[in-house]
Records
---
Amino acid sequence: MVVDLHFSFEDRLRNVTINIVEVERPDECAGCGLCAEVCPTGAIEVDERVRLDEDRCVACSFCVQACPRDVFRFYEVSFTELKPKRRPVRVPKADIEVRFIGVDLRTCDRCENRPCIEVCPTGVMREIIEEHRIDLDACHGCLECVKVCPYGSVTVELEVPQLKRRSNPRLNRELCVECNRCHEVCPTGAADNVPDGDPDPERCLGCYNCVAYCPTEALKRPDHRPRPKCTDEVFYIQPDMCIGCRICYDVCPVDAIRIEEITRMPVIMPDLCVRCGLCADACPTSAVDRVPTEEAEREVLRSRISDAFLGILTREMLEAAEEFGSTTRTERDVEEKLSELLERKMSEEMIRRVIEFEVKNVIEELMAEVVSGRDSRGP
């Protein structure tokens, strides 16, 4: 299934429920091929035994509804305390009609025990073999006869049943940031309606991949029941590991990452971050990590103060350079050296380290004043 992108991010797990389909009883498959016929993504193949391609399966439940032998099982997976909890879900079976029953009496005569008659719940096989008449309406299409026949003499063809689609996800337009992630993961193009409206009910399979991948939770399952959301941690960019590539800034779907005015380094705003984890996924140096929210708020405040303080220093350097004028060779050299020094430090993204080591005490005092002032005002 296409469900492995953000399932390492704890706070999102608490609000996401996914579905999976498994081939739980492969030995029960009678080879009718209905599952492969109804699968909308071509994830099922039936030859000597049934095979399910998990990468293409979207858990629409069509195979579960159509299978007369209960080969498939449908599960709902939710996350409690970061551990996946799997719960089997009963899916109503589709009404299956029999198109044809055939018995090759030439090979059937070799069989002495007639196990097909014994397992047939409606007596249809007894009528066929002993009375040579067929009542298609009486057959339920259980395929028990096909399964137990030792010579493969019994042939049953089933009609493709009418299947029920699951309800559409709901869209909250106010939360949608038009990141188009739902378009990318939707197997049928039903999400092309987003953000103008809910997914197309004619094409939606109810796989809810769009819900699982939506970074802002603008798309919800129709049966969604809100759970408590983890808010004690948030994503934070570690300055000593950040190389200033700004890839995180480009992928953030809610503009929660700002670029500092002077250092030109990215900073995540804790109050804007929706904890989708796309920035952490995209970072080439693993500089984005989870930290306690309070710690992130303190560090962001520190970096903003540092940026402002550096801005003052930068302006004073430029003003000092301009005061030299350009009347002599020596003065011009001084101005060029100052400009070159500033430009080199900015390009190498070393400003933050200069701040940390050369004006650390000043920053600490400013931080203490700001924090004490905020605490004195109260919540």
---
Amino acid sequence: MKIFTIPNFITLGNLLCGCLGLISVFEGDLKKASIFIFVALLLDFADGFVARLLHSSSEIGKQLDSLADVVSFGVLPSFIVFKNLETFSENEYMKYGAFLLAMFSALRLAKFNIDTRQSDSFIGLPTPANGILIATFPFLIDNSDFWNKTLSTEWFWISYVVVFSYLLIMELPLFALKFKDYSWAKNKVKFIFLALSAGLLAFFQFAAVPFIIVLYLVFSVLLHFKVLKA
């Protein structure tokens, strides 16, 4: 069994980003920690792309990818939420609720690894989506008065933890941005979603990410109930 492959080294880079991001949280630099989540996301896409390109996909690569994702998109985002609750919550114990996100992320990834239904789609919110959303919050706090006020309350963070912990494991099919081919007929929903997401990013920048996550959930629900056709 080959373990020293290029895709696996890329996955280990993802894991390293998670570790370095944790150091940034301990140092009190949440923006730097968030940047490590963004880099981890790029590496998370890259390892799968390179594995398919080199025909070197393997079971150990799949397991390693999930282990790296637990750190970069589960534990690290939880610590960012922990630091915010530590700052904004008057209850000294409330901040520990942030680690529900790490726990449910681990549960979601373990479920993903053995769930045969998730080869072409997801069941529950992917951990990178949750991680990248949390990574935008330190930047949004300085973006506008609205976000500053919203993200400076303990109830926002508590509500976020509860809602997104559930979304990670809920039995809702969500479409995956995987392309077997690039024809419009078979991928029109994905192309429309990507085009709308690009437009939102160009117009709102970091503030677009929450809208994109909501758009992703809405599109998935409409597909599930056949309001939209894939």
---
Amino acid sequence: MQHFYFVEKPANVRKSMKVIGYTHSLVPSRKLVKSETVHIHLTESALSLYLALSESNRKILRRAQKEAYQVFIYKEPSEENLRAFQQFYNNFAKRKKLESISKSQMEAIMLLNNQGALWLSEIRSICGQTLCYRLDIVHAKKAMSYYVATCHSQTTLDYLKRPIRYANHFLLWHNLLHLKEQGFVLYDMGRLMDDQNIREFKLSFGGQVVNVYSGYIAHSKISALLLGVQKWRK
């Protein structure tokens, strides 16, 4: 199967491919699922990116600057790094009543990692407790938010409750600046959800709301049948 990420014009599909996968393509297609995302153009100056933030977000980041965070970026995460992330995320998902990262989904994550298409970032408190993880897909100097998980403030000591509130904002802002320094041109915030809190969080980082298209296109009847069975099973 051939898979394309963030394409801006019709992809050059190999004739031998029976199934073509697309993630956040900008090319409209009735065969793919349409959704909204936010694109942050990292070619803008750091000052322009900062001024594009919402006022409340700038206020949070100013407060976060006073916290003694430790940030770790794994450009080539090890299997141990990713297993630790999976465990952290699944605890988060259970608490939030979200779908956990299953064995098959973890296999897909490992495959992406083997292709050099993942960046994992982690933020810890001054005492070394992990507060937040972010897992991004990276391809052709573009990045997209893939998974995000934060720890539970109710299970931590009182003096860590404020750092936890700011951790996700701080880590994402840190990552945007780091990606910019590394020559990346675009950050895709991931699909805009119906959840108002998540939607507001993503919109608070500025950027442009755009329509994107994702899914699979079968180029044979057998492949189409197999895709239909897979969708039915889900």
---
Amino acid sequence: MYTTANEAHFDRLASETYKASQSSIELAKRAGNAILRHYDFDDESTEVMDFACGSGLLSQHIAPYAKSVVGVDISQGMVDLYNMFALNQGLLSEELRAVRFDVLASSPQDPFNGQRFDVVVCASAYHHFESIEDVTTALVSYLKPGGTLIVVDLIQPGEQVNLDELFPEHEGSIVAHRGGFKETTIVQAFEKSGLQEVEFRPAVNVKKKGQSLQLFLAKGRKPSL
């Protein structure tokens, strides 16, 4: 249900006169800075997957620090916007490109031609997925041995926060985890997928309608062979 609804929602958003909001650009920049602080990128060797990449705001921020970035999204409309930006910047597909791909498809094909990644990042999107355990396990399968998964999303605020007032845009059909996550939920999903050295920390402070909120950064390493 959520996959189909999100695909339709973001395709529709991309088909309109799309322009990323200043707040979205700033949030992607701050999430990107947090990721850069907690992973040692090498612009000559680090191969990155940006999962649920949208139009590529996060990818654009981290691409200068990586050898290559492949964006992955369920929305073809967003993938097209992502690739249009890369083309307009004169970037080669080997450096920055996006593909439409559902990692939870029952018989998924491999659009990466066997490529596996040093790091998989996902920012401000985990709350859209019904089963974060299934998504985490799928993403780990695309990591190289010793590779790292990094997720940035909202720490669930206290019960005193009215989620209906704070997140009216979080429609029930597209957001499975309204208001974000508790630490235990994320850590358990990471550990169940086989990740080691799992870390969870507050990483980005944000304000929404006068309410102070925090985004977390969670990181785990796939065992080496």
